[in-house]
Amino acid sequence: MASAQPNDAEGLPLEGLRVLEIGHYIAAPFATRLLADLGAEVIKIEPPVSGDPVRKWGAAEDGHTYWWSVHGRNKKCVTLDLKSEEGRALLKDLVAQSDALVENLRPGQLARLGFDDAQLHEIRRDLVICHVSGYGLTGPLADRACFGAIGEALGGLRHLSNHTPGTTDLPPVRVGISIGDSLAGLYAAIAVLAGLWSKSPKGRVADVALTESVLSVMEGVLPEYGATGLVREPSGGRISTAAPTNAFPTADGGWVLIAANSDALFRTLCEVMERPDMADDPCYRDNPARCRNVDALEAEIGAWTRRYDAKSLERRLAQADIPSSRVYTAADIAEDEQYNARRMVQWVDDPKLGKVLHPGTVPMFGSSSRDVRWTGPSIGAHNRDVYGGLLSLDEAQLDRLSRNGTI
Hints:
alpha/beta; Rossmann fold; formyl-coa transferase, domain 3; 2 domains
């Protein structure tokens, strides 16, 4: 049995923090899931009956989706009609008991309900408020509708994730997940922690835009354009400034990504290929030369990789300590020895779905920090726990609020 890591006995780092979520779809709920995974008490507010629309996204069993099992995990889910007077009164009470609030309603919608930043700070002076929106709270596009995919387009990612120019008439390629929303969620989680760390007697207000979250990770795209006027173009599987770095075909129809772009790694790769002559070829002698002659170089490597199936090729490269990997599917991830050893993949009991395969918590604070405390709850599952426990409403009050549709 592996020895426990030093942090295992210390509890989760965000225990004692209470975060209120008025979120739907992906960005804000993703941010609060990260905080909940790290121990924060997250109270998620949803409309009565319907709940968050993302509950119905993806593969499902008896109406319960597998994604929701992860997306809503470790949160307390309550229902609340924010359009009703009693609902807004309950929200006021919840704000008073919370350290932070994360929301991604349309800009201004929370204010129209009577909860602008000033009013929220009247209720809880040191409340950290994080607004997540498509374009941010100011500027000419602030009121426009936006989803993560639009953020990816406006932030420049869809352009770079596209096929290489001139190879196809197909639309620009999507990354495959809602990466724009996830990036905004990461920044929102950082914003909450930064606001709390500032220890301001008057709570801080963070403004996180999907579009800006994508743009912020675009490496040198903007400064390179500013300095040279050149627009970076899609490069397919390659890195335009380092070679060889690409996915190469295998005999069994798979792909193995090889990143041997330093001179020392490239020489090692040539030895593994039994082509030591390539390392001294003027066309490949250093990285600038390899980049200039990348088509010919990749053709040489591809001819070699096609002689092996993906797993045996992966073993050969690993033995030589060349950065490399098969291009993983979900099945590969589930079976991976490293992920399983660190519990980054784990089977979790879901009351509605049975065993569900979950990704672990990132970052890890000792192996026990990756324990999933509970899976995505049913709509209103924690109404009695939150309204009865935290706000001290009695059973008669709870029953009345339930009957009249407030909760």
